Every structure is written in structure tokens, then in C-alpha cells.
Amino acid sequence: MSTSSKRVSRKQFVSGLGAAAASGLVVGGASGFFGGRASESSAGGSAATSSTKPITIGAGVPVTGAFSGDGQEMLRGLQLGVAEINANGGLLGRQLKISVIDTKEQAPDVMTNAMRQFVSAKVAAIFAPFLTYSSVEFPIVGPSNIPMFHVNTYQGNLDYVRKHGYTNIYEGCPSQIWYGHGFTLVIDEILKSGAWTPSSKTIAVVTSNDPYSLTIAQAFRAKMESEGWKTTVFEEFSIPQADWGPVLVKIRKNPPGIIFFSDYTAGDEASFIKQFHQAPTKSLVYQQYAPSVPEYLKLAGKAADGVLWSTVIGSITTDEIGKKFVADYTAKFKQAPGLSNAGAQYDLVRLWAQAAALAGDPYDYAAVNKNVQQLIFRGVSGAFRFMPGDLAAYAYPDQVKDPSIGMPHLTFQIQNGKQELISPSPYATAKFTLPPWFA
């Protein structure tokens, strides 16, 4: 509903949707309910002193540095979401603005300083997609009760939230533990289809040695070995890495059925596939997450054709919500979005705004957090529903079998330079094909 035709007061908003919120509110796409008069009271402090004062949210994103490809996607996603809300009358009649801090490589001191600045400023919400593995941010943000959203995709962060009982720190995706298990399900699908028969039931695993990637690699190895596959190579490296000659010698000496590459930087993964492509083995090649970043295809070029990859927080671009997002993003930024963090941040800022609109005051942190935990939000990334305790999104189909309450673990294959979604149903729009190096 356009705010130019009718303003929606807090009373009207709550009377229309409050009952649904009590049992788990299902929301998504539309942002028309954001208009209306803001509450004059504020449990969050002095921030809501005027019904026309802009509402500030904090964004700690890696605008520069090794993760800037992802960081630019993150920031644009937030900017698009905020622009959409503001164009529809703002949040409770007030405009949103973003306070940005460049978190670069997420060094502990940088992250600590960023969180202290946001908490001191009493922002309405914090969006910090990438964090430290040590969770140094949480003792700062947790006691403030400010809603904080990240997609660090790390189980250690979730364990920390559960252990300390924080109720305001949300991981807007499932943790990384689902990557390895999820790809084994995709392998089973491909095998059952008859589209591929492995030369041998062997795997070669190449992984960076940070806790995130290593956990994924170890989980995949354990699951495959439990199903009768043998590991011929398990190689760890430190990022960034550019020379893959030594590990490729090992792989080519005894070609495996599957090469599983666990990392999250586009440069590492692109250089590996280019060097593999110079003398490829008849192996399926899986690369985790990084091909979602547009930079990857620019670096890898034709060598990427045939690569399989997945993300536990990806963009579904073929339905009504996804098509609109892609069109709006492309129009605003003169380039298409990647397949992960642009959509994720666009979704999360709108999810938070829905929860804040229900609360009637974005600075009433307790009410906003309560609403966030009751929402089932359908966005570009699928369905967001936060699990009690660790406040992470559910994984579909790895963890839950209902796509209406789980975020889909999307698996793509790059075919003729295009990203084709091959799993899971009902989102898949393409089928697996043998990589061109099998010819």
C-alpha cells in the first residue's frame, strides 16, 4: 500500500498483524506497512526523540581489503533495502540512514572498535556480515540488546551465543557444518540420475586451514568415507594462495572421482580451477561459496565451466521475489548482483524493519528482538526462521524438510558461463551436466 494514498498508524498495523505475530508471523516482499507515525516513547534510550528524526543502522562491512568483492555486494544489498523502505514512506514514517564502518579483514581490534562505536551511538540495528571466529564482538553487542545480524556461517559463533544466552545476535544463515553434509546429498542425486559415474570412489580434499573451511572439509571427508569412499589427498593451505602446482601434481598422479575445494575467497578458487584446467583429470570439481561472488567468474573465465559450488545463503533469482530484486539492483548499481551476500543483506534489513514496525519503535530493542524471533520471513534467500538458543536460520533440506521454514542450501553448476541452479527441489531450474573436461 502506497503511503501517498493512506498512512498506516501503529494501532492499525498491530491490530491487523499482531495476532499473526503471536504465533509466528509470516512476512516478506512488500514494504508498504513501514509507513505511519513513529512512537514517541523509546525503551532504547533517547534516540526516538522526534517522529521525523532519521533512524540510523550500523553497517560493519569489508569495503576494502581481501573480502571487498563480497563487501561491496553486502553494502549494495543494504543500500537497496534501505532505499526501498525509504521510498515507501520510511520505517514508521521516518527515513533510514546507514552508518558504515570498513571492517577490512575482520581483525579483532577493528571489529571491537566498530562494535563499540555502534553501541555507543545507540544505533537501531547492526549489520555486520563477516565477524571474527573468536566472537570478540558479542560481549560488546550482547549486553546492549541492539539487534545484530551477521552471516559469518560459523558454528563457533552460534555456540558462543547459546552459551552466553544472548537474545539479540542473529546468524542470518545456517552454520558451515551443513556444507559438507549437503554436498553428499547432491552427489547422491547425481549418481541416482545416471548422469555421472565416478572413475573411482575416491576424493581429493583441498582446504584452507582456518576453522571455517577446515570444519567443512573434515565433515565432507567423514561423510564420504562413511559411505565407502576413500580419501587420496587431504591438503591444507593458508590464504591467500596462488600456486597450486604441488597439490595438482598429487591429484593428477592418482585422479580422484571428486575434488572438493573448501575456501571462501574468489581469488584462491579461481586460480585453482584455471591451473587445474591446464591438464584436467576426469573428476567432478566442487568449490565452496566463492563462485557466488561476481569476481570469481571474471577471474576464472571459461575454466569455470562445469564447476559445482554451493552456498547455505544464496539468492533465488528465478521467482517473482528474486526477479524483482535482480532488476532493482541492476537498475540502481548498473551491474547484476552476485548470488549470495547482496540478496542476504537486502533480506535482513527488510526483516529487521518488519520486526521494528511491529514493535512501533525501532529503539525498543526488547520488542524488536521478540518480533525477530517470531518472524518467518520469505526473501530473496528463501525462508528465514531463527532457531531458539543459537538464533541461526534453519537449513533446507539438510536440517528441515519443509522449504517454507528453512533456508535452501543451493547448489549451482556453471554451464557456458552461466550460474545454473541444480539443487534442491523445488528451487532447482536446471540439471547437472558432465563438465566439458570429461569430453
What can you see in these coordinates?
By secondary structure, the chain is of the alpha/beta class. The chain has 2 domains: 10-175 and 316-396, Rossmann fold, CATH 3.40.50.2300; 179-311 and 409-438, Response regulator (Rossmann fold, 3-Layer(aba) Sandwich), CATH 3.40.50. 38% of the residues lie in helices and 18% in strands. It contains 13 helices and 17 strands. The protein has helices spanning 10-23, 68-87, 108-121, 138-141, 155-164, 177-193, 211-226, 245-253, 266-277, 294-300, 320-333, 341-359, 365-374, and strands spanning 26-28, 55-61, 96-102, 126-127, 148-150, 169-171, 202-208, 230-237, 258-262, 284-288, 308-311, 376-379, 382-384, 395-396, 407-408, 410-415, 418-423. The strands form 4 sheets. It has a 7-stranded mixed beta sheet, with helices on both faces. Strands 3-2-4-5-6 form a 5-stranded parallel beta sheet, sandwiched between helices. A 3-stranded mixed beta sheet has the order 1-12-13, covered by helices on one side. Strand 5, helix 5 (155-164) and strand 6 form a beta-alpha-beta unit. Helix 6 packs parallel to helix 7, helix 9 (266-277) runs parallel beside helix 10 and helix 12 crosses helix 13 (365-374). The protein is globular, with a radius of gyration of 22 Å. 53% of the residues are buried.
